[in-house]
Every structure is written in C-alpha cells, then in structure tokens.
C-alpha cells in the first residue's frame, strides 16, 4: 500500500490542495486513518481551505520545537464513519514564510531527517494508513525532500502549454533520479474526449508523459466556487468530481501506477 | 583658525583609530572564514552528518538508489533493500557499507540480521 502520498506539480494553480484535501477526506470516509500536511511554506493554504485553528505549526516540528503529535489537528468529526482525519498546517504568517525562505543549508539538511522521523512515527508507531503531503510547486527544498520519501507522487498538471512542457521536463530530468512511483492527474481539462475511461486518450497521455494516468478532471465550476467549504466525499457524495476522486483512489489502492518513473533509464544506465 | 586646526587634528586621530580598528576586525574575520572553511570540510567527514536531498543529488546513481531506498524504508536489511532495487544482495551490502563509511547511514546487528538506518542528527528538541 502507498503509505506516503505526495501531491506535487510543476506550476501553481493546478489543483494540488483541492486534490490533497479531498483524497484525504475520501480515504478517511473509507475508514482509513489519514493525516494531511501542508508542505507549501511559501504560500500556505491548507489552514484556509480546512478553516482549522492551531497555535502549533508544521514549521515548529521541522524546527525541532515540538513533537509531531502537537502539530496534528483532529478533524475526524467532519467525516462520518470510523475513519480518522488529521491535519498539520504550515504557518501562514509573513514572518514565518520569510523565516522558512531564508533558512540556511544546515537547516535544510535536517528537514529530510525530520520528515523521515515523521513518517516512522505516524506509519510505523501510530499505524496511520495514509500520509498526504500537499507540496509547493516546482523544485522547492521541501518538495524535493517529500519526493525523495514518497511511496507515490500524484503529479497534477493542466493543459497549459508551459505546464505541460515543464511537467515533462521535471519528470524526465528530476523524477527519474529517484525512480519515484508516479501517477498523473490532469486537471481542468476542457476536451470532452479527455476522460480516464477513454482508452485512446489514456494511451496517448501515458505515451506522452511516460507515467500512468490516474485521472482526468474536467473543470468543475462548483469545485472552484466551493473554495474548500466542502469536503466533497462527505458533503457532495453524488457530485461528478467525487465520482472521479473515487476512481483515482481506487487506482491508488489497486496500485494502477506500478510503472515506475525512470525505471527504463535506470536499467540502461546500470545493468 | 587655530581652533579649526585643532579640530582637524582631532578628527584625523579619530579616523586613524577607526581605520586601525577596521584592519583588526578584517584580520579577525579572515581567521573566522578560514576556521569556517576548515569546519565545513570536517563536517563532511563527520560520521553523523545527516543525509540531505542535495547530497543525494550529488551521489553517483548506484549509491543514490540505495540511499533513497533506506530513506523510504527508515530501517532495512541488505536483502530488503535488494528486493526493492532489483539488485543482488551482495551488491547492496557493498553499497550500504560504502554509505556507512561515508557516514550517511548506520549499521546495527540484531541477532542474525544486520539492519541499516539513516544517521540522524540528535533527536532532542531545541
């Protein structure tokens, strides 16, 4: 099972946070124990989407000022059923964002080991089923660390040509170095043919990006208008967006993404 | 006129003192920079230097693959790593030992099994 899922993109505005939050809610709705973390320290948004209050941030954990349990906010009451949903938020204050942006390389070295400790504690000790990292776009330090540790990266992209180009380059030149298991989600698609149940479309996309397609999401005005007010799997179970989310979750749980990004390149280099 | 000349000499003396202090300060900064450079070289050799993403990026492909597998697992035997990397156990043992010598990971014998894990910085909170 993919324990640590990292939601990442080349550019901002591709729907990472909405995808992360609703995937976390969906897994919790299925009875899983889930934690979602905001790793976008340059532009934190999870606090606003979840409308959650805290005085202890993920920044504090990474700065070794607290333990991970102090950071977790229990949001399980927002989901019906036996599942558990927790969140760890990035500090949205300008001072904290500036602090994180100016951290030196020595601090950077410790981030990977702090994130490994987080994974060991939550998955190994506290038996969480899933940890979801909502990352900052591009190759920020925190995003790179998350990609290194990921059991699966859900890479979100749009049809925007600069996004398509950048995403392909990032996949071929960075992801291949880590042989990260990766699945693609194309968001805000306008083409009626662009559906994850259209075999021809899936084949074309998978050949183009050289990674498996987890889902193609049309541009739903209701999702944009909701601005995080709804956890779709809980509050809008019959919405088509929720239906497509279930398809993506099924593919993640059934390991549809068994192809590993860069595996062919690796074999050529080392065997 | 006499008074102006007196003030001029006084100013000159102050300026010379500031210049002398700046020169002393520069000498001390040079020593600090040299010490820092020496410390940085030593840090790389320290056995407990934590592994970071930039270090991983600079590693040769074969070692990076092993190091990343350890990062993802937290703690594992050579056989467990070999199963994930699809390489021979003996080869993984060699790579893991190289990473131990380089100070990036640690090795611990538990009964008949030898486990490898990431060398982390101290766990105490600041």
Short précis:
The complex is a heterodimer of chains A (271) and B (126). By secondary structure, chain A is an alpha/beta fold. Chain A contains 13 helices and 8 strands.
Question: How do the strands and helices of this protein lay out in sequence?
Answer:
The complex is a heterodimer of chains A (271) and B (126).
Chain A: E1 4-9, H1 16-29, E2 33-39, H2 46-50, H3 58-62, H4 68-71, E3 73-74, E4 84-88, H5 94-101, H6 105-125, E5 130-135, H7 141-149, E6 152-157, H8 161-178, E7 182-189, H9 199-209, E8 213-218, H10 221-226, H11 232-235, H12 240-253, H13 263-270
Parallel strand pairs in A: 1-5, 1-6, 2-4, 2-5, 6-7, 7-8
Antiparallel strand pairs in A: 3-4
Chain B: H1 2-45, H2 53-58, H3 61-73, E1 75-77, H4 78-85, H5 89-101, E2 105-110, E3 113-118
Antiparallel strand pairs in B: 1-3, 2-3
Question: Which percent range fits the helix content of chain B?
Answer: 55-70%
DSSP strand content of chain B: 5-15%
Oligomer: heterodimer
Number of helical stretches of at least 4 residues of chain B: 5
Give the integer mean of the pLDDT values of chain B: 78
- The CATH superfamily of chain A is known as P-loop containing nucleotide triphosphate hydrolases
In words, what does this structure look like?
The complex is a heterodimer of chains A (271) and B (126). Chain A has helices at residues 16-29, 46-50, 58-62, 68-71, 94-101, 105-125, 141-149, 161-178, 199-209, 221-226, 232-235, 240-253, 263-270; strands at 4-9, 33-39, 73-74, 84-88, 130-135, 152-157, 182-189, 213-218. Chain A is an alpha/beta fold and 271 residues long. Chain A has a single domain (4-270), classed as P-loop containing nucleotide triphosphate hydrolases (Rossmann fold, 3-Layer(aba) Sandwich). Chain A has an eight-stranded mixed sheet, sandwiched between helices. In chain A, helix 8 (161-178) links the parallel strand 6 (152-157) and strand 7. In chain A, helix 1 packs across helix 12 (240-253) and helix 6 runs parallel beside helix 7 (141-149). Residues 258-271 of chain A have low confidence and may be disordered. Chain B is mainly alpha-helical and 126 residues long. A three-stranded antiparallel sheet of chain B has the order 1-3-2. In chain B, a hairpin with a 2-residue loop joins strand 2 (105-110) and strand 3 (113-118). The chains are: A alpha/beta (271), B mainly alpha (126).
